[in-house]
Design goal:
It is built from 14 helices and 16 strands. It has an 8-stranded mixed sheet, with helices on both faces. The two termini are 36 Å apart. 43% of the residues are buried. The protein binds aspartic acid.
Length: 451
Amino acid sequence: MIKVVKFGGSSLASAEQFQKAGSIIRKDKARRYVIPSAPGKRDANDTKVTDMLYSCYRQAILDEDMDEDSDEKDSVNFEEMLKKIQNRFDLIIAGLKLSLSLEKEFKIIRENFSKKAGRDYAASRGEYLNGRIMAEYLGYEFIDAAEVIFFDEEGNFDAQKTDAVLSERLMHTSRAVIPGFYGSMPDGKIRTFSRGGSDITGSITAKAVQADLYENWTDVSGFLVADPRIIKNPKAIDVITYRELRELSYMGATVLHEDAIFPVRKEGIPINIRNTNAPEDKGTLIVEATCQKPRFTITGIAGKKDFASITVEKAMMNSEVGFCKRVLEVFENNDISIEHMPSGIDTMTIFVHQDEFEEKEQKVIAGIHRAVSPDFLELESDLALIAVVGRGMKATRGTSGRIFSALAHANVNVKMIDQGSSELNIIIGVRNHDFEAAVKALYDIFVTTQI
Ligand code: ASP
């Protein structure tokens, strides 16, 4: 059995957290490949090492560009910032009682910063150094991600080359630490994924070794049925399918980087989200398919605020060939992405992100008039969309009815309801100010009353 384990920043923020991660890894021999993030926040007022590195690099460039004896020079120079970063790592090393010294590493980093090695290089050092410490602590081999994770000339991830090199390398390495978040370009330059990208490295590694399980250790016990900022102590989701997860993540539920799903999904490797601070919790298992009945009719609720809607009305529009296409082209020509598009017999409504739409509003209205000469155009703003997601809905009658009555009881006016044809999700549009009340009402009807 092979498990790839990724630890997030908060799981490796201090020596104490490292010890928790260490005992989790040692407890199961199958945990052979470890992907660390950079040290995260130790408490709410702390700064992530990745953010410190970005600021430090910015300062290095400023210092470089400034005249040596200019009095504009910032009082906090890059040397001091780098010292602070080194101190974060030294504290971890001391707490773990390791004899490792990062003095040489920091000398190289200092030189590369002066040579303007790039923002991505700077950010990647958090994972690189944490990987060095983790490898020393566990007695595992250290593999620099720059040697096994690749990007092409344009900076896009090169899945083929990575898989070939990484799987070959790991075939001969029984236990290794590979830092998350970065890789290298054909010219050797360091390149990172987007923020939170260590999740992707974990997924790529799980695919390369054909792991039985990809464990993603973080600071929550998996995905929750609803946002804990709205619902007090919401239930955790035991099992969720990749498709359900896509729907929920798209609507704002974030625990895992979205791009981390694709490499393992294709291989049928499950992901288990686990809590480093509560390792006895089972967490959430993300799978391709399951015949396990969900605990509730719905798997989760997620939503986002600040949408605008544009309703186009024209008698007999349904018999006008190409009507929808012409309307949609107006949005395309103005480079506005469409979020949702429920339609009626003589109407179609387009939901867009308000901030993207606002500045182009008048151009879009004029464009629609020119394209289809509507009878009537109506705009609304400050709308929220809520997705109720669940594979269990297919087999249950009356889900929409329950949604309507729950929202009516909570005095929430439903502006729109749209059921996806897969019957996996129902999207509900409400006013921004009703958003929280709507989520609470839905949670109550589908979860609280079912326990
Ligand atoms: N350290 C990086 C970040 O803060 C990547 C990661 O943690 O996954 O975004």
